[in-house]
User: Fold this.
Amino acid sequence: MQSAHEHVVPSWVHNFGHEGLGLLLEALEKLLDKKQQDNMDKRNQHKLIQCLKAFMNNKYGLQRILGDERSLLLLARAIDPKQANMMTEIVKILSAVCIIGEENILDKILTAMTIAAERNNKDRFAAIVEGLENHEAQQLQRAEADTTVLTATHTESDGDSHF
Assistant:
């Protein structure tokens, strides 16, 4: 699976399907629920995020992700300003989903981010703001610029999702 996350073939996504997505989300949830997370846990979380990104890089995968209530909440919970690379990956995913998702997707993402933040007694965007304030998190700042470009190109393209 790890080697396949770079170049997802739609047939692989169909074969992996709903059951495989459920396993990815379950593994991510277990890691997020751990009280003490070590470096291996964080690395595994990042790999799971990359797998989710690969899985949703087509209409079928995107529909499966958006069809599972847990997916947006788990992505929002995984936003961690101390893990700049993973956080950047998640912000890119959520930004792309906002652009190409269903009509009410922004509300769903904002709700997921609110619930995730409330679990830690924080404001909705506190983790993202903290990540942007971190001078070492330049890739997150670049992701913001990439999102702007993605928005502009998507409005002019045929709607295929490649993020």
